[in-house]
Amino acid sequence: MSQPRAPGPNADRAPTRLGGGPFGAVAPVMAAAAFIVAAAFAAAFTGALPGGRWAVVHLVTLGVASPLILAFSHQFAGSVTQGPADRSAMPLVAALYAGALMVIVGLPSGQRWVTAVGGTAASAAVLASYVRLRRMRRGGGRFAWLLRGYERAHGAFLHGALLGLLIGVGAFRGDWYGAARLAHLHAMVAGWVGVTILATVVFFAPAMLR
Predict the structure, then answer these.
(1) Residue of 59, 78, 98, 191 with fewest CB within 10 Å of its CB?
(2) Cβ(103)–Cβ(58) under 8 Å?
């Protein structure tokens, strides 16, 4: 009769993965599905709902893309630094969801204070994420460049969010409005989304190409 094996030296350590798979730690961001449904509904009834095309775009960018970028940035950063899955990013994701919802509701309804509070909450969540990524980069070794790319993307969000917040509260008029709107668009699409995707693709390209 075989004797039970003695527990190993690491038996008392918590597992580094949360959930059932490699992305278990970011499972809560699947709430983005609700924003996808809302965006599809808004697109189907663009003319009848407040906000129109603006609401559709921001439901996707703020409600879907942004929380996923924040959560997966921490997930991949934790992987390359050999750290545990970062559940602590989830409060930041929740704050980003809350801020996005306030912006999407506040601007079309003309409630500038709601827009301001929502934009501030979303920016604070991304700023906190930026600070954590900088701390994690110290242990990134040869993959520190990936975390640095995520930091640059977070910085682009903060610039774009500030411009969007000023636009939302009516701080820009005339030609300044068009210029600020264009800068906001480029910071969010090319910076926040584009740089994150580029850094991730460059990192995973060797594995995909074998």
Answers:
(1) 98
(2) yes
Instruction: Tell me the backbone φ, ψ of residue 9, rounded to 5 degrees.
Output: -65, -20
Q: Are 46 and 52 in contact (CB under 8 A)?
A: yes
What is d(CA 159, CA 174) in angstroms, rounded to the nearest whole number? 21
Q: How far apart are CA 155 and CA 140, in angstroms?
A: 19
pLDDT at 14 over 70: no
Residue 203 pLDDT? 82
Tell me the one-letter amino acid at 98. A
From CA 9, how far away is CA 62, in angstroms rounded? 44
**pLDDT computed for residue 142 by the predictor:** 80
Residue 34: pLDDT band with limits 50, 70, 90:
confident
Q: Which of 153, 155, 154, 179 is nearest to 167 (CA)?
A: 179
Q: What is the pLDDT of residues 147-159, one digit of tens each?
A: 999 999 999 999 9
The pair of structure tokens assigned to 170 is 């009516």
Residue 8 has pLDDT above 60, yes or no: no
User: Tokens 């584009």 appear where?
Assistant: 194
Torsion angle defined by CA atoms of residues 179, 183, 184 and 190, in that order, rounded to the nearest 10 degrees: 150
Query: CA Rg, the chain, in Å?
Result: 20
Rounded CA separation 109/115 (Å): 10
Q: What pLDDT, in 10s, does the model give residues 91-106?
A: 899 999 999 999 999 9
Measuring CA to CA, which residue among 156, 23, 142 is closest to residue 89? 23
